[in-house]
Amino acid sequence: MGYYAVFLPMKDKEKSKEFRPQHLAFLKQMRDEKKILMNGPFTDGTGGLVIYAADNLDEATSYLKQDPYIINGARDWEIHEWVMETDVGFDF
């Protein structure tokens, strides 16, 4: 299992507002399925960050491409494999 940091910079503010409920439902479902470790918006309104848990980059990218923000062109995206280092325990 690896972790993949996805930056979701703002592409279209109106589409982001329109598809926010679907995006949030998607994130919750993916967290419930243990496919997302954590997520959240940037406080300056420029976008957000999602940390996916996946076996490889292709799998993480396939998750990302199911996000209503991506499907509907509300956000751009950038993905990087991420090595998590923490002293806090998670059930992943």
UniProtKB/TrEMBL annotation:
<protein>
    <recommendedName>
        <fullName>YCII-related domain-containing protein</fullName>
    </recommendedName>
</protein>
<feature type="domain" description="YCII-related">
    <location>
        <begin position="4"/>
        <end position="82"/>
    </location>
</feature>
<dbReference type="InterPro" id="IPR005545">
    <property type="entry name" value="YCII"/>
</dbReference>
<comment type="similarity">
    <text>Belongs to the YciI family.</text>
</comment>
<dbReference type="InterPro" id="IPR011008">
    <property type="entry name" value="Dimeric_a/b-barrel"/>
</dbReference>
<dbReference type="Pfam" id="PF03795">
    <property type="entry name" value="YCII"/>
</dbReference>
